[in-house]
Amino acid sequence: MSASEKAKAKAEQVKGAIKKETGRAADNDQAAAEGQGDKTKGSLREAKEKAKDAFKK
Length: 57
Hints:
Radius of gyration: 13 Å
Order of helices and strands: HH
Oligomer: single chain
Number of strands: 0
Low-confidence stretches: none
Number of helices: 2
Shape: elongated
């Protein structure tokens, strides 16, 4: 996994978690759902990179 892709995945996960919790605190279901989506997208990006690394070996 390249360092830049790993950083992008983690940043996306953190951004999503913050957005989700901010949405929940403000009782904004749409923002909370968008935050969960961003967090999931970051997790998928990370899984993709790990799979690519597994096939390289």
